[in-house]
Amino acid sequence: MRRIYIDKRSIPLFLLSVFIIVTLIGVNFGVLHNKTRENLIATRENQVLQGVAQVNYYFQESKDSVKRAAYTISMMQERGASDAEILQFLEQESDVYTQTVNKDFTGFYGSFNGHYLDGIGWVPDADYVAEERPWYMDALDAQGEIALVSPYLDSQTGTVMMSISQLLQDGTSVVSLDLSMDGLQTLAEECAVQFVWNDALILDQDGFVVAHSDRDELGKVYDEETDGIGCLIAAELNSTPEEQERAYFEVDYAGKSYFVFSSALNDGWHALAIVDENRLFGSLRWIYVIFFVTLLVIIAVIAYVFLKIQQKQGQTEDLNRQIQAVANIYAAVRLIDLKEDSFTMINGRDEDMQMLLSNKHMHAQNALRVTMDAMTDIRFKKAIFDFTNFSTLQERLSDKNTIIREYIDINNDRCRARFVPVEYDETGTLHYVMWMVEITDNRSA
Questions:
Q1: What span, in angstroms and rounded, lies between the C-alpha atoms of 17 and 314?
Q2: Would the pTM count as exceeding 0.85?
């Protein structure tokens, strides 16, 4: 197995690199997380607004119907129309609107010139006083504007009903219609399924549950509840002034956190969507997974590169030690780069070093020849000159691990010069060689 060298001096650099990378990834993750979170919330807000548009359209049909009926009957009264004529109009309009406009519409009725008239033929009990009914009194209070009468739960049918009424121009007559909330109930149930909400609901100004995707909640008054998520929602709505209407708020119930998206309707009503936090931000889990996986991969890559560098440095140090150990045997050792015509001095005698330094501006070929010319006995200069020819090294070392030339130096010492191939490039061209000089017989000693 290869040794893994770890230089303690490089550990701070490694930790700093990891810290910088983690910080950069963390910042990007934070931006991505916040942006995704905002988009998820905005999507839910838009879904609620889509539902509100349908609710407003649902009511607008009925409001427009009451307005048209009020205007027509007021004109009939100005012409002196009888109760029979007004009743005939109510019957005709009830039939037309029930069949063509809204199936939840139950017909027109009202008090006209002090008489109760009903377009679908309902006959009240003898003790029924129209002027004491909420639909009549609310219309008077509205002073000619459309009045949405507080809804109620029909105990027999389990359907939420409400009245929409308007005061006529004579100041005493009122036209009204009863509207079943079945359409809104269906809308709440469909929205909860379509948009994957926990619940969808509509509350009136008193916290009365007009529609709810859970039918068991119909008819409850959340403002009067003392327990349950509805109680918490009503408290949040009541604590916020109408002019500061919030798009959403959070409530904690039964160990879970819920986001409640709210949009105001007319007359203090609210359309709401309830989504638990896990359902709302479930897709963010993938971002967490991607973040941590990316982080682990990058840390692993950094660690791998760090260890490889440390291993390379260790191998280089081992090689240098080995070279130095070998160099101690020789009087001169140089690593020569044949491609760059440069050299690295590994070991050398003092006079050899001085010669080399004095010719450091020379290329490797010239520097070696100048040095050897100065250090070689005249009888061997020609042989050494040919031996140090770089241009023929590739051929001379093609099938050898080393080539040797013995000579006598200027000190009359017997020496042995040696070339050793170190590295070939990818084309097979000799790149590095080692030049070594060994004194085999020190006669001057």
A1: 21
A2: no
Element (DSSP H or E) covering residue 229: helix 229-238
Residue 353 has pLDDT above 50, yes or no: no
Looking at the chain, the whole-number percentage of residues with pLDDT higher than 90 is 44
Report yes or no: 267 and 148 within 8 Å, Cβ to Cβ. yes
Q: How far is CA 74 from CA 86, 113, 225, 264, in A?
A: 10, 11, 43, 32
CB 302 within 8 A of CB 18: yes
> pLDDT tens digit string along 191-233?
999 999 999 999 998 899 999 999 999 999 999 888 899 999 9
User: Ramachandran region of residue 342, left (φ > 0), alpha (ψ -120 to 50) or beta?
Assistant: beta
179 neighbors 151 (Cβ within 8 angstroms)? no
Quickly count: other Cβ atoms within 10 Å of residue 238's Cβ.
Answer: 11
Distance CA 209, CA 204 (A): 7
Q: Are 432 and 338 in contact (CB under 8 A)?
A: yes
Secondary structure element (H or E) that encloses residue 180, with its range: strand 174-180
| Amino acid type, 311 | Q
Place of tokens 């349950």: 228
For 197, list phi and psi in degrees, rounded to 5.
Answer: -95, 155
Say if residue 357's pLDDT is above 50. no
Q: List the domains of the chain with CATH numbers.
A: 52-180 (3.30.450.20), 183-280 (3.30.450.30), 328-441 (3.30.450.20)
14 - beta bridge partners? Answer: none
